[in-house]
């Protein structure tokens, strides 16, 4: 979620071109990180490798913003925040995926699943 927030704040403060420059930088950085990787990629929701947590997450959220728009993502986050009340079940990244998919139009379902649940990437 920090990567999503970063994208939104950079775009609001410095404009879309600055946000896009960050995404391009992270794509390059991520591609370099893949060269020396000895392990297979995990789904982004399970990722622990620093390149996935930082660079790939930025790229994924940029693609989600382009595909779905901020309203869908923010509405999903608000739903999860409302469910994550003290004394109740803590929400997980998989809860985010399910809630986001519930708001995702049919034509984008596979793309969202691929971005969040697949270990393979075409970045």
Describe this structure in words.
This protein is mainly alpha-helical and 123 residues long. Helix content is 70%, strand content 0%. The protein contains 6 helices and no strands. The two termini are 19 Å apart. The model has no long low-confidence stretch (mean pLDDT 90).
Overall pLDDT confidence: 90
What is the CA–CA distance across the termini? 19 Å
Helical element count?
6
Instruction: Report the portion of residues in β strands.
Output: under 5%
Order of helices and strands: HHHHHH
What's the main sheet like? none
Find the structural class using helix and strand composition. mainly alpha
Low-confidence stretches: none
Q: What is the CA-based Rg, rounded?
A: 15 Å
Count of extended strands = 0
Query: Could you say which overall geometry the principal axes of the C-alpha atoms support?
Result: globular
Helix % is 55-70%
